[in-house]
TrEMBL record, chain B:
Residues 2-240, 316-545 form the ABC transporter domain. Keywords: ATP-binding, Nucleotide-binding, Transport. It comes from Occultella glacieicola. Residues 269-306 have a biased composition (Low complexity). Belongs to the ABC transporter superfamily. Residues 264-321 are annotated as: Disordered. SMART domains: AAA. This is ABC transporter ATP-binding protein. GO terms for molecular function: ATP binding.
């Protein structure tokens, strides 16, 4: 955190009372769980982690619109599983496992090679599709959980000063998008008053024009208001070239390092050194750019014990799954042929417990 | 503090401002008045350097703001000197909560965190927002939002505040709040205020100076009483003063009341003569022509009343109407009956459920419980929108939502075909409301009043029996409002029903037969407009306040009462 705080803002940070946790703590927790989910294929562990995430959101979220959007992520997760299964049923490849249902095959023209529509549904293939869908759904829901628990606007307040203008632009985009949806609803209602009840491209075009005009007006209003309130005035002109040059160097070093890591023929040290140099130069450029943006932050979110605990829970969950898979690779996945009940080892239990712990730490906001 | 030297602004279609010379002194509250399109916003924009840096266009002459030339200073460079507050506070908010919004400008100015804390607290107290500190901005009422918007620029401690119609969207009480906060800033904090406002009756008594703009952008500035005496736009108190020939012209209700003694006697005599005279018989012959005589209005109203009492005549009835939006219970059990040839005003605070009620009545909005019946006994919600609008039509709060074509004539033609009206009927209705609109113009380029007229014409093309209007007077100047009043009175003469939601007391006083007052989703008053407006301290129009106990609401009423008093023998 020390690197990314502006010099003045760190001086006297008086936290606001009654606020929730620092948003980055929730993101760290969610990132840890996401790592755990990607590193295992054990459906039982994934289901446990998913249950933990949903429980934590239920206990800890507040009344903001972001929190209310969590339901949409749950539905999206269900849709992902359904789509994955439907894809398997329609175009899935046959395997050697027992056939569950034998659907009639739809013949395709000859030039479509090795692909059949419908046909027999095998147990292993179906289970595999369900597991894969579940994993993707769990990742999406974890992302939704981070969004629900940490107001993205407040998260963006914590970015480095050099990204201040960029983050403000993102905040505005985040604000304007829901307004756009509201405007679509309002214009549709108004046009129904006029007797326009049609669907299709023409009705869409008729609605688009007022909505876009409205969005444009609002954006201009907001931009004018920000301009008049001094937005972007603290920037000292000049000196931008050094930062740009440094960022180019960082990018080149990063590309070289990544290439060296992936290409087995390159010397082993090149990867580490390249990435290290890239990271150092990028941070230095960011700090330098941040100095040129002269602004302060009102009551920055504090990072305290509870933040450490919540972020730590994410790290523990990730570490437990990674270590568990390393020590006992057999528990990483569930057998498909023949289908076996997935085994749950200690690492999985630890990960799930760590994921659920913030329900007791992160609550009690407002 | 602000100096305009020979300022002209041109956006490419001829000058909006022509050679404006004005000086606004330290600590003054200066009011900018003028019809729509007269360049009020451009003048305010020039004071905050938004014109021409943000808006484009060409500005000639010099604008000095606290000694800084706006040619060399961008709006952001003036943020510590000028605070600019717009019409729609929600559109100007950058952050989520009240305290963060107040701090935004200071963050940009890189003030120390301790100083920011102190100033946020000071401004919260100054504007009476302390209890709202951590509330989300979207949950506040309109008046609170506008005060937050003012506070958000005040924390940078500007010496000048520029406000473009800060009360146009507010109900009378909320507008009082905002204006009280402003006068406090002028008197206690010594801030210079430049303010544009259509509803002069709300602000003129606070002004130290007035800049009056004509439609072609020529400015006159000076002492309020002198400038307003010759101005085309004037509040009722000024018009009354002109009628009575008072000199100096009183600008506040208080001053006028102290001068009005003799006039009050004459009006009292006149109105009792009109009430006791043969007028009532003569006016029932022409029911609904309320503008012809003050007694005529009551006669017209009683005619409407008796019509409403007969079974089968109401054009729209509602029984036990409830509207819920999620957890909010916006309308709670409203019963109403609207008669043919009646203009009913729907009043009440921001958020009292007026819009929800109108939308539910039109059949297009959500309704949780209750029934709505048109004259034919049908429920508009059960019908296709294209059919329902022939019975009940609604002009929503932002009339532009109804419009989507590139020219006025295309809108009119589309409205004709959508309403199955004969070609040209929408254009004819539009011409009767506001004559002289160029059919080739884009609806966005019209003035607020012209755009509203177009939306009303589009909705009237289907010849609905009931017309509902949601806050139509927002952003309208006095002439545009007079046109709207005449148009709606015309509908009444045709036997249509008009239900209009409005905060604008003077507008309601000129037009309505009956007032429904909504509070918290319930109808708390259903009374004849005259009784309601004369009785209420908040909703009384200026003329009624000045001449109480004389039963007059508008300057036209006074004129008629005086005529009746002068020649009591002349029967209509």
């Amino acid at each position: 955190m020390a690197v990314i705080e502006g010099p003045v803002a760190r001086a006297e940070a008086t936290p606001a009372r009654g606020r929730g946790l620092h948003p980055l703590a929730w993101w760290a927790w969610a990132a840890g769980i996401a790592v755990a989910i990607t590193r295992t294929q054990n459906p039982l562990v994934i289901a446990l982690l998913l249950a933990a995430v949903v429980l934590v959101v239920t206990v800890c979220r507040d009344e903001s619109p972001w929190a209310r959007a969590f339901g949409a992520y749950l539905i999206l997760g269900l849709v992902v599983v359904a789509v994955r299964v439907a894809f398997y049923v329609v175009v899935g490849l046959p395997d050697s496992s027992p056939v569950l249902i034998d659907l009639p095959t739809v013949p395709l023209p000859d030039w479509v090679d090795s692909l059949t529509l419908l046909g027999p549904v095998h147990t292993a293939g179906l289970l595999g599709a369900i597991y894969a869908g579940l994993r993707l759904a769990a990742l999406i829901i974890t992302f939704g959980a981070a969004n629900a628990l940490a107001n993205p606007k407040r998260a963006l307040r914590s970015v480095p000063a050099s990204l201040h203008h960029l983050s403000t632009a993102v905040v505005i985009a985040v604000t304007v998008t829901p307004q756009l949806f509201t405007a679509v609803g309002r214009v549709r209602r108004a046009q129904r008053l006029r007797g326009l009840d049609a669907r299709g491209p023409r009705a869409f075009a008729g609605r688009l024009i007022p909505v876009l005009q409205d969005a444009l007006d609002r954006s201009l209003d907001l931009a004018a208001s920000m301009d008049s309130r001094g937005y972007a005035r603290g920037t000292t002109p000049g000196g931008g070239r050094h930062v740009t040059a440094a960022l180019v160097v960082a990018l080149v070093a990063g590309v070289l390092g990544t290439y060296a890591l992936l290409d087995g023929a390159a010397p082993a040290w090149l990867g580490a050194v390249g990435l290290g140099v890239g990271a150092v130069v990028a941070v230095a450029a960011s700090v330098r750019a941040g100095r040129r943006v002269d602004r302060t932050r009102y009551r920055p979110d504090p990072w305290g014990l509870r933040e450490n605990l919540v972020a730590g829970c994410g790290i523990v969950a990730a570490t437990a799954v990674v270590l568990g898979g390393w020590l006992d690779p057999g528990t990483l996945s569930a057998g498909l042929t023949p289908p076996t009940w997935p085994t749950l080892n200690v690492a999985g239990v630890v990960a799930a417990l760590a994921a659920i712990a913030p329900a007791t730490i992160g609550g009690g906001r407002r | 503090m602000i100096e305009f030297r020979d300022v002209s602004v041109d956006y490419g279609n001829g000058p909006v401002l022509r050679g404006v010379d004005a000086v606004i002194g330290e600590g003054e509250l200066c009011l900018v008045v003028g019809p729509t399109g007269s360049g009020k916003s451009s003048l305010l924009g020039a004071a905050g350097a938004r014109v021409p840096h943000f808006s484009g266009g060409r500005l000639t002459g010099t604008v000095l703001v606290d000694g800084r030339d706006t040619r060399e200073h961008l709006p952001r460079d003036l943020a510590d000197v000028v605070g600019v507050v717009g019409q729609d506070p929600l559109a100007s908010f950058v952050t989520d909560t009240v305290a963060e919004e107040l701090a935004f400008a200071m963050e940009q100015l890189a003030l120390a965190p301790t100083l920011m804390r102190r100033r946020v607290e000071e401004v919260l107290d100054l504007l009476g927002l302390a209890a709202l500190r951590d509330r989300p901005l979207g949950d506040l009422s309109g008046g609170q939002q506008q005060r937050v918007a003012i506070g958000a620029v005040l924390t940078a401690q500007p010496r000048i505040l520029v406000l473009d119609e800060p009360t146009s969207a507010l109900d009378p009480a909320a507008a009082e709040d905002v204006l009280a906060a402003l006068t406090r800033l002028v008197h206690d904090a010594g801030i210079t205020v430049l303010l544009a406002e259509h509803r002069l009756e709300r602000v003129v008594q606070f002004a130290d100076a007035v800049i009056s703009l004509t439609a072609d952008g020529v400015a006159t500035s000076g002492d309020p009483a002198t400038v307003l005496a010759g101005s085309a736009v004037a509040p009722p108190v000024v018009e009354l003063g002109r009628l009575a020939g008072w000199d100096p012209l009183p600008l506040s209700v208080r001053d006028a009341r102290r001068t009005a003694g003799p006039l009050r006697e004459r009006v009292l005599a006149g109105s009792s003569a009109a009430a006791g005279g043969p007028g009532s018989e003569g006016t029932t012959a022409e029911p609904g022509s309320f503008r012809s005589a003050s007694a005529g209005r009551s006669a017209g109203r009683s005619a409407a009343r008796s019509a409403a009492d007969e079974p089968g005549t109401p054009t729209l009835t509602a029984d036990g109407l409830h509207v819920r939006h999620g957890r909010a219970h916006a309308v709670r059990g409203v019963d109403l009956a609207l008669a043919a040839g009646e203009v009913v005003a729907l009043m009440g605070r921001n958020g009292a459920g007026k819009s929800s009620l109108l939308w539910a009545l039109s059949g297009a909005g959500p309704r949780s419980a209750g029934t709505v019946r048109t004259a034919a006994g049908a429920d508009p919600a059960d019908q296709r929108p294209a059919v329902a609008r022939r019975q009940v039509a609604l002009v929503p709060q932002s009339p532009t939502d109804l419009l989507y074509l590139a020219t006025v004539s295309a809108e009119c033609a589309a409205a004709d075909s959508q309403a199955d009206a004969e070609p040209g009927s929408t254009a004819r209705i539009l011409g009767s409301i506001t004559p002289g609109i160029d059919p080739g113009r884009h609806p966005r380029d019209l003035s607020e009043g012209q755009r509203l007229a177009l939306a009303v014409a589009v909705q009237l093309a289907a010849a609905p029996a009931v017309l509902l209007l949601d806050e139509p007077t927002r952003g309208l100047d006095y002439p545009a409002k007079a046109e709207l009043v005449a148009a709606l009175a015309g509908l009444r003469r045709q036997g249509r029903t008009v239900l209009v939601a409005s905060h604008d007391v003077e507008f309601v006083a000129q037009l309505a037969d009956r007032v429904l007052l909504l509070a918290d989703g319930e109808v708390v008053t259903d009374a004849p407009a005259r009784d309601f407006l004369l009785d209420s301290p908040v909703f009384a129009p200026q003329v009624a306040k000045i001449l109480a106990p004389a039963p007059v609401l508008t300057v036209a009423d006074v004129r008629r009462a005086l005529d009746a008093g002068a020649e009591p023998e002349s029967a209509p």
